[in-house]
């Protein structure tokens, strides 16, 4: 055992408590208190400790503070605590707690209609579901895009002809929650007019596409044979308002992109989610054998 004796410079109103945790050389502190000692009111200390490496912490009851250190006790003594402190040791700093809420972006306010004479807009209406799906959330810590939920289930089903406030929420990994709202105005379609029909569609493309490459069209129908016009959300694509043909407005990358296409018959609109999958095109290399070449 090695004698540890000395005196801290400042006296305290209460004894200073010192705690030691045995540790493997060069390793993190081992759990569990191995030894503790106290000074007297003048700061004097005198005790014995087995040689080896220790995590060392002292606690000042009056100030309510503690300081972690690392020490190596030699086989011969006496020595002071100050002489044992590792000058290169930097106590681990706890990661700051995440108190920042995620950012929730609600869809733009919109108007959706239900069929003339109907009871209202059903919760499973394709245009309604497409609109809800455009809500997004971002956060400064992982996951960067927390899941967005909404309170549609708490609203009447079907939604009656009026303005309905829909609340969108997201919670990050630290439990911080944020909300955003959007107004959904529901109205009844005029008599004699039928809402256009458009459904979710998927287009499979390759990375050979470039800005300006066209594909499609997005398909929609109208029972009244009204002329339809198309529009698309986001900046990845443009859409021919008359034909529904999509054009890359940004350089395509391998992966999946989802946008919302809105079709308008001049009276009412309908929406659907359009998914564009871009796959990698492998490069084919020609392989030649030695006997294909003529030696001269």
Describe the model.
- This protein has 296 residues and is mainly beta.
- The protein has 3 domains: 2-84, Immunoglobulin-like, CATH 2.60.40; 95-192, Sandwich (Immunoglobulin-like), CATH 2.60.40; 194-296, Immunoglobulin-like.
- Helix content is 4%, strand content 40%.
- The strands form 7 sheets. A 4-stranded antiparallel beta sheet has the order 3-2-5-6, with no helix packed on it. Strands 8-12-11-10 form a 4-stranded mixed beta sheet, covered by helices on one side. A 4-stranded mixed beta sheet has the order 14-21-20-17, covered by helices on one side.
- The protein is elongated and about 100 Å long.
- Mean pLDDT is 84; it is low at 26-30.
Tags for this model:
296 residues, mainly beta, Immunoglobulin-like, 3 domains, four-stranded antiparallel sheet, four-stranded mixed sheet, 21 strands, 4% helix, 40% strand
Q: Tally the helices: what do you get?
A: 2
Q: In the CATH hierarchy, what is the architecture of the largest domain at level 2?
A: Sandwich
Beta-strand segment tally: 21
Structural shape: elongated
The secondary-structure element order is EEEEEEHEEHEEEEEEEEEEEEE
Kindly report the spatial arrangement of strands forming the biggest sheet.
3-2-5-6
Calculate the mean pLDDT score and round it.
84
Looking at the structure, the CATH topology of the largest domain is Immunoglobulin-like
- List unreliable stretches of 5+ residues: 26-30
């Amino acid at each position: 055992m090695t004698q540890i004796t000395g005196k801290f410079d400042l006296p305290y109103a209460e004894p200073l408590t010192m705690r030691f945790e045995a540790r493997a050389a060069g390793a993190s502190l081992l759990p569990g208190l191995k030894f503790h000692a106290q000074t007297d009111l003048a700061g004097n200390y005198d005790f014995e400790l087995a040689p080896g490496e220790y995590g060392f912490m002292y606690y000042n009851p009056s100030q309510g503070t503690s300081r972690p250190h690392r020490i190596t006790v030699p086989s011969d003594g006496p020595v002071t605590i100050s002489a044992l402190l590792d000058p290169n040791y930097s106590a681990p700093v706890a990661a700051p707690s995440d108190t920042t809420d995620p950012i929730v972006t609600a869809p733009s306010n919109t108007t959706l209609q239900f069929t003339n004479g109907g009871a209202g807009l059903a919760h499973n209406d394709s245009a309604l579901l497409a609109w809800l799906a455009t809500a997004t959330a971002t956060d400064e810590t992982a996951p960067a895009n927390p899941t967005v939920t909404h309170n549609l289930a708490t609203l009447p089903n079907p939604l009656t002809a009026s303005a309905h406030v829909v609340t969108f929420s997201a919670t990050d990994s630290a439990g911080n929650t944020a909300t955003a709202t959007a107004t959904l105005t529901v109205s009844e379609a005029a008599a004699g007019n039928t809402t256009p029909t458009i459904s979710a569609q998927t287009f499979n493309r390759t990375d050979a596409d470039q800005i300006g490459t066209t594909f499609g069209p997005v398909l929609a129908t109208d029972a009244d044979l009204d002329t339809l016009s198309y529009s698309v959300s986001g900046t990845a694509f443009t859409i021919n308002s008359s034909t529904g043909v999509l054009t890359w407005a940004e350089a395509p990358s391998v992966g999946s992109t989802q946008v919302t296409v809105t079709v308008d018959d001049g009276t009412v609109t309908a929406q659907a989610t359009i998914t564009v999958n871009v796959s990698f095109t492998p490069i084919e290399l020609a392989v030649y054998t030695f006997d294909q070449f003529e030696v001269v």
